[in-house]
Amino acid sequence: MAGGGFVEAGQLKRAHLYEYRITGYFIFACIIAALGGSLFGYDLGVSGGVTSMDDFLKEFFPKVYRRKQKHLHETDYCKYDNQILTLFTSSLYFAGLVSTFAASHYHRGSISFFFGAVLNAAAVNIWMLIFGRILLGVGIGFGNQAVPLYLSEMAPAKIRGAVNQLFQLTTCLGILIANLINYGTEKIHPWGWRLSLGLATVPAVLMFVGGLFLPETPNSLVEQGRVDEGRKVLEKVRGTKNVDAEFEDLIEASEAAQAIKHPFRNLLKRKNRPQLVIGALGIPAFQQLTGMNSILFYAPVIFQSLGFGSGASLYSSVLTSSALVLAALISMAFVDKFGRRAFFLEAGTEMICYLVAVAITLALKFGQGVVLPKGIGVFLVVIICLFVLAYGRSWGPLGWLVPSELFPLETRSAGQSVVVCVNLLFTALIAQCFLASLCHLKYGIFLLFAALIVIMSCFIFFLLPETKQVPIEEVYLLWKNHWFWKNYVNDEHVTGVGK
């Protein structure tokens, strides 16, 4: 198969000798680390709901509020087309770009996020809102850089997919909780929106307190030269003293990493081209080009643009975020059984069909100043929920899992920084452009996203090898056996890492 070219775990160096048991210490560490996803999720969920609340719009965006009231129960693609309003959302992600390159300390993210939430809740003008969003973005940049790597390094190879997706699960739970809170606070006038934004301090406090007890990964300790401590932590998280094979792989990977003086420059070398193209650039960019985060940002706004009332639109957002949580659980349960490629390709096909269905429906039934029939509205909500289910078990979690698996230790931190930077850059650009694109392209925006998913599915089929159950320190062997990447990964690199 063209997209195949992978190595079974049993063919790798010492993978078959790895032993582990699931311990309470391991579970505690992973759950606390995964709380970083709740920061990202809560913000994704809360921002779209708040920007659709009348009290918020009246105070900061009166022109948008008047336009909304004029077309309250009618369809209008351009109801919320306001660049300052979208800057409220996207400024967070632009700020996150910068923080990703300094995201070595777990606590800094929670502290920045806490103060950003306080500032947003107390805001009296637009610039206080945007400055608060910048602080939130710094916190999210820290969390999104550190958490997926931490979970992948702590997890045994055979269950790494499920463990890494704790990040996606907490992100989805954050989105759901935010939408439920928005649904309640929308009825509290005139300060309900302040409560929604201020409650972001809760996950920040949980993350900060939990981080006080969080152990470093064995990989990180070995790389710092704390070899004995690294061995002890590895034994503790694996629940066995018999970790010789895995520890030897860690030592060898660390020795290779220490020989690299400039990891970002090393990432650009020809031998690291697969990780750069797939992990650092392709997957994080494509994850945002599915259009999913636009739907999450603006679900209440989209539903109101379709003619739903304010309460009904927030209720519909709760449904979509519930579907996202269900999808994350499905992915956690089966990704290590069926593999990453299968989820990418199967769900991608579904997503294309759903987006085309939405576009056709809107083209036929959706016009300027038209009241949307109830049956059509219900159909659109169902289709969007199915789209969310498909994304939530594929590009959502795998967009973080797969890049965290691909980089060797010597470029892992640098690579993950680029992953998060690219992800947040495209998140910010999509957030800033989506409502304007919806206004100008109308239903065509959904056809555009469908076409992009066709391209990214071909990218996965031809270029991504299967990484399920492959130890993270031996993933580099996959490139040597891949039909395309073997032309870039030379024998000197592959044998040199193992020496």
What this model shows, in words?
By secondary structure, the protein is mainly alpha-helical. Helices cover 74% and strands 0% of the residues. It is built from 25 helices and no strands. Helix 5 packs across helix 7 (126-154). 57% of the residues are buried.
**Percentage of β-strand residues:** under 5%
Q: Tell me the span between the first and last alpha carbons.
A: 32 Å
Structure classification: mainly alpha
Specify Rg, calculated over alpha carbons.
Answer: 23 Å
* Major beta sheet summary: none
Topology, number of strands: 0
Low-confidence stretches: 1-12, 492-499
3D shape: globular
User: H/E series, N to C?
Assistant: HHHHHHHHHHHHHHHHHHHHHHHHH
* Average pLDDT rating: 83
Number of helices: 25
Fraction of residues in helices? over 70%
**Oligomer category:** single chain
Layout: helices, strands, pairs:
Elements: H1 24-34, H2 36-50, H3 54-60, H4 62-70, H5 83-99, H6 106-121, H7 126-154, H8 160-164, H9 166-185, H10 192-198, H11 201-211, H12 218-223, H13 227-238, H14 244-258, H15 263-267, H16 273-289, H17 292-305, H18 310-338, H19 340-365, H20 374-392, H21 395-406, H22 409-441, H23 444-463, H24 476-480, H25 491-498
